[in-house]
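Tutorial, part two.
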Amino acid sequence: DRPLASTKWAVVKENLRKVLKGERRATELIRRAERSPLATRRTMLSLRRSVSFDNGVSTTHTVIDVQAPDRVGLLYDIASVLFGLGLNLSLARVATDVRQARDAFYITDSAGAKITDPLRIEEIRRKIEGALETGGKSITLAKGAPSTLLAAEAE
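Running the prediction step on this input gives:
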């Protein structure tokens, strides 16, 4: 993949400005980009998907490691799931290698504590896995969901 051309970056900046001002919805931009032939061609369903949790890496956060085929809107969909579950996302470490995303999300519950309850961990895992499988198409975003991942339309 090539870096975005300056004209594409101008589109990204304009989309970001419009979303932050409430003039456009990030979900609209992402869904439109998902329908493009380029996005369809980039989706590789045979790549590995996994969601794992680690409470030993950080003293203050639960770390969720997600491995999935990279696609338009992937980070937005995962962040929306976390937001919808009332979790705080403090840091996301994002890496893509040959169209395979390997991302780590540092989260806490609404009280700022690690997620330690096995049932809660399983609920979070199921929701993220659902977003990975459906490409976010079944996610209902709560009002005020994250809206800062806007490079989708520029690709």
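Strands lie at 50-54, 62-69, 88-97, 100-108. In part three we will examine how such features are distributed along the chain.
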